[in-house]
Amino acid sequence: MALFSPHTSWDCVPGGINNWLVSPYGPGKSRPVTLSTSTIFPGGFSHTITMAGVAVSTEQLQPLLAMPDISVSIDTTAVTISCPKSKLADIISALPASLVDSVRITAHTLPPIPHTGAGQILTLDTSLTLSQALDITKKHLAMEHIRLAIANGICMDTPVRSIAVCAGSGGSVLAGVKADLIITGEMSHHEVLDFVHAGVSVILADHSNTERGYLRVAKEKLEHLLGPEVNIIVSQVDRDPLQIV
User: Fold this and answer.
1) How far apart are CA 210 and CA 34, in angstroms?
2) CA distance 117 to 12
3) At a CB cut-off of 8 Å and minimum separation 6, what does 231 contact?
4) What pLDDT, in 10s, does the model give residues 151-203?
């Protein structure tokens, strides 16, 4: 039997588990808590080498111009070289000694992937009370009982204007997030206390309870992609190992 487990990929992609988890609370503006970054640099170039304000001829740069997998731009006032990190030493060695002191190396950061990343934080167009948010969460996750830590100075009628979610274990992803309510599967005792003392209420639904409902969404997506000839089955007996009794 072949097995494919997208797990964290489904947490992070647009239309994935965290989008589903934050979807029932009403319209608003949502974004990932932490944006994912690309695994490759544009053009494959992680660094730029510049030499400005120096006199240089094309003949002096012939060893450089013959080098593969780099990009060289020359004008009357500067030389700019785009390259991967692995080429830096070769490029410096190929430069005339008179130019080495004028070299400036810039390391680029990997670009973010729009709308993709861990967790989601939603700013609601219309606020809910904490009690309403709790009821919505129970219905969405099909849970009769759920754990709630109420923030200091907050009551069940306090307005909730922002909600941050992370399917599964959200302690590290959501650490330091500024929201009125946090919803995740699990986090440590001390992580809960940190949020409560910071004025943030916390709902813990247990790990897989924050993910399992998305299987219905995934089933519909796969049926659309694969067609009626493929039978998509969602388990009817799978459940979180932790039960509230």
Assistant:
1) 19
2) 4
3) none
4) 999 999 999 999 999 999 999 999 999 999 999 999 999 999 999 999 999 99
